[in-house]
Amino acid sequence: MRHLRYAVIIEKSDTGYEAFVPDLPGCVAVGESIQETERLIKQVIEIHLEGMKEDGVEIPLPTSVAEYVEV
Fold first, then answer.
1. I need a surface site. Which of 4, 12, 29, 71 has the fewest CB within 10 A?
2. For the chain, what is the domain count?
3. Rg, Å, the chain Cα set
4. Is the full-model pTM beyond 0.90?
């Protein structure tokens, strides 16, 4: 299987951090630190993609891009 690289957005929340993947609706994770949240969202992405494969759903290619803009 080829490796895909999805954009992940991590936001600060009242209790820690939340992450979501714009190209994979419903793919979310929460953690107490950025590192924990990154680890969890990677696991969630892998589980999400495996479930899509098992269900015969086409895996969407990554299209979202995250960039920082200096102002």
1. 71
2. 1
3. 13
4. no
